[in-house]
Design brief:
With 369 residues, this protein is an alpha+beta fold. Helices cover 43% and strands 25% of the residues. It contains eleven helices and twelve strands. The strands form two sheets. Strands 9-8-7-10-11-12 form a six-stranded antiparallel beta sheet. It has a five-stranded mixed β-barrel with strand order 1-2-3-5-4. A hairpin with a 7-residue loop joins β4 (232-240) and β5. It is globular and about 60 Å long.
């Protein structure tokens, strides 16, 4: 321990003050080589397992059994919703959260994690503030629509049927051709519940003009492994997943290490951002928001809240309630200083959630999450 301060002082004086050779010692070279060899062995050993052909008949039977369980769960959920509406929404306030948690547990047993998550959200609405009956009715309608989509998915267009399966909770595998591009990392943020931490990474292809979403997961209390800091650009392939919009992707081969970049996606007006969300709802009625970049907007107070107003127009988007509770809001206000900025975020029925901002002049991305 006593040698550390002396070494730090020598290092501070400059490289010439450090005695001896400046090559790594033998033990360090051996350790690095051994670690590299273990990584290669692990990669080679994992490759055959990943490409080993599975029994297609067994996979088909498993998929059929799971589909039957989800169908039974969706049918039961339809009955619960019918009972709720028959008894009146006021009864939901007196029933308490336990009934909804029990229903969500039944959906988990049915292997319909997407339905379970929506049931838990629905159970948290009663007594949640003014207007909760309206919000409860809206969520019941969306849940009913998802149930019916699953029960009648054979009548749906292929893209919408894939979206329904994903919303219900079925995992999806990439099915599209790889897209190679220089991908700019626009935003990265985590959401967590009692069981899982989900990391969302938004990418923008500078050549394809395409937005893509990477998802990675970690156990409760643990951060996912994938980390791509905002403002970097990486040349890589992404593999699109099925579903409306086809924005979710998996990261494929990387051709170069990530490097800092000053590029930014082109911005649109607040009115166009709202219109994009409206068009996206036609393909995915359960969509909470769409990714969009606003160009030349100014954060301005609006009573007790904030909004992003077009610098060159007369329209604006309110910020979501969650955005008002983040320190990134004040970072955005300070970055703007009353001048226009470019902001990337998510636009939905609750408003706009800013995730990253750039000054109008050239400058690096500023994360707001």
């Amino acid at each position: 321990m006593q040698a550390r301060p002396r070494l730090l002082l020598l290092w501070a004086e400059g490289p010439a003050a450090l005695p001896g050779e400046r090559t790594a010692p033998d033990w360090a070279e051996q350790w690095t080589a051994a670690r590299r060899e273990r990584s290669e062995e692990k990669r080679r050993g994992a490759a055959p397992a990943a490409t080993a052909p599975a029994d297609p008949e067994a996979a088909r039977r498993r998929a059929e059994r799971r589909a039957e369980r989800i169908t039974a769960g969706a049918t039961e959920l339809e009955q619960r919703l019918a009972d709720l509406l028959r008894g009146g929404l006021a009864g939901a306030e007196h029933a308490g959260y336990g009934l909804w948690e029990e229903t969500a547990a039944r959906m988990v047993d049915a292997q319909a994690s997407g339905l379970a998550a929506r049931v838990r959200e629905l159970g948290a609405i009663p007594s949640s503030g003014p207007g909760w009956p309206v919000r409860l009715l809206e969520e019941c309608a969306l849940l009913h629509l998802l149930d019916q989509g699953w029960l009648r998915q054979d009548r749906l267009p292929a893209g919408l049927a894939a979206t329904v399966r994903s919303r219900v909770g079925l995992p999806t595998a990439p099915d599209g051709p790889p897209v190679r591009d220089h991908w700019l990392v626009l935003a990265q943020y985590d959401t967590a519940d009692a069981r899982l931490t989900t990391r969302r990474v938004w990418l923008y292809g500078t050549a394809s003009d395409r937005l893509a979403l990477l998802l990675s997961y970690g156990a409760a209390g643990r951060a996912p492994e994938l980390t791509l800091p905002v403002g970097l650009s990486l040349e890589a392939e992404v593999l699109p997943h099925p579903g409306a919009g086809r924005q979710r992707v998996s990261l494929g081969e990387r051709f170069a290490p990530p490097v800092p970049a000053l590029a930014r996606p082109p911005g649109v007006t607040t009115a166009e951002a709202a219109a994009r969300y409206g068009r996206a709802l036609r393909d995915d009625p359960w969509l909470d928001s769409v990714p969009v970049t606003l160009g030349r907007v100014i954060p301005t107070p609006d009573g007790g809240s904030w909004q992003l107003a077009d610098a060159d127009g007369d329209s604006a988007l309110p910020l979501t309630p969650s955005a008002h509770n983040r320190p990134g809001l004040w970072r955005l206000v300070a970055l703007s200083g009353g001048a226009p900025v470019t902001v990337f975020g998510e636009c939905g029925h609750r408003g706009f959630t800013p995730l990253t901002a750039w000054p109008t002049a050239s400058g690096a991305a500023v994360p707001l999450t």
